[in-house]
Specification:
It is a single chain. The protein is an alpha/beta fold. About 40% of the residues lie in helices and about 20% in strands.
Length: about 350
């Protein structure tokens, strides 16, 4: 199970939840023999519920669907060191129990979704952050992370006083390369002479790159020691360590996936969270559930971008929102991305 010593623990339990355990995961709601009207099921990525980022965004989409459609949805936690077979078993159990759609939250679920979707052609499956699964009953829910990251780079370039900024990636994989590429390009296009220091926490997710705040904190401390005064993290739960380090050293952090300025578990650090590069995982989850509810399930590649509002920068921090020069530069950059005059790199 996930370690309980992480920063997010204080924000996890907002209600008393009935928990059931099985060989392939623990569920955040009790099971029922009634297969009708259950609604959707989430299989969480590493970090699980309470990461104040990627998984919690998916949870928000599930909660919205429950409230609107009267569902009794469920969400299942990952296990340490689990295999693709474990993930497939989890998804198969959820499909057998009557949940529809069944969503794997994270690219690591792609092989399992491909396998299980073939066994349950009448169930709609979704996989977030992967577009390799081609099936009539699978929605590949993907985002242009590089576009929001470009805007984060513009923000960093116009905020830094030291002309050194940082990027912390959770795992050295193509998905996170998109965040880094967009961020670096945004910095370079905005202000010449700014150095971007990059570090990936691990080579694989199994090593804890997305689930180890201590690793994120250590990486950020190193960058801050090298004079970085703005650090952007695309590292899931590990990003909380980056935010903690930024707050301790009175520099800026840029969050990811969710509006981390608003997260209860990060409230004591919020004054150091300048903005967050968000992707609307909540909207993608809700939209897939609604499409199933409406009898017209989404399938194929479903891509969310800046133009559709699927990615964006959070403006909750007044220091960010009230900076007129920064907002003007961001508006110009957004317009350029939308009209195609700015081509954002993905690697």
């Amino acid at each position: 199970m996930r370690r309980l010593s992480r920063i997010a623990v204080a924000g996890i339990a907002s209600a008393t939840l009935a928990v059931t355990a099985s060989a392939c995961g623990s569920s955040s709601s009790s099971s029922s023999s009634d297969s009708e009207g259950k609604g959707l099921a989430l299989a969480y990525d590493v970090g699980g519920k309470g990461d104040q980022s990627f998984n919690d965004a998916a949870t928000a989409g599930m909660d919205k669907a429950d409230a609107e459609f009267g569902y009794k949805s469920t969400a299942v936690e990952p296990q340490d060191g689990e295999s693709d077979a474990d993930k497939a078993q989890r998804l198969e159990q959820l499909a057998k129990q009557g949940y529809n759609p069944v969503i794997g939250v994270g690219y690591a679920y792609a092989p399992a979704v491909k396998e299980v979707a073939a066994k349950f052609p009448k169930v709609t499956f979704g996989v977030v952050d992967d577009e390799q699964v081609q099936a009539d009953n699978v929605a590949d829910m993907v985002f242009t992370e590089e576009q929001a990251s470009y805007l984060a780079g513009v923000t960093a370039a116009l905020t830094t006083k030291t002309n050194v900024v940082g990027f912390v990636g959770g795992v050295d994989i193509p998905l996170i390369h998109k965040f880094e590429a967009g961020y670096k390009q945004g910095v370079e296009d905005t202000k010449k002479g700014v150095t971007v220091k990059s570090q990936y926490l691990t080579e694989t997710a199994q090593e804890g790159g997305f689930s180890s705040p201590d690793k994120g904190e250590s990486a950020a401390e190193g960058m801050i020691d090298a004079k970085a005064d703005v650090v952007y993290a695309a590292a899931g739960l590990s990003g909380q360590g980056v935010i903690k380090a930024a707050a301790a050293n009175k520099v800026w952090a840029i969050g990811v996936d969710s509006d981390q300025y608003k997260q209860d578990a990060l409230a004591k650090y919020k004054d150091s969270i300048l903005t967050s590069a968000m992707k609307d995982v909540a909207g993608a989850v809700y939209n897939l559930a609604k499409s199933v509810e409406d009898g017209k399930p989404e399938t194929g590649v479903v891509r969310a971008d800046l133009a559709s509002g699927g990615v964006s920068l959070a403006d909750s921090n007044p220091v960010f929102k009230d900076n007129a020069e920064l907002q003007a530069a961001l508006k110009k950059a957004e317009d350029g991305i939308k009209d195609g005059s700015i081509k954002v790199k993905t690697s």
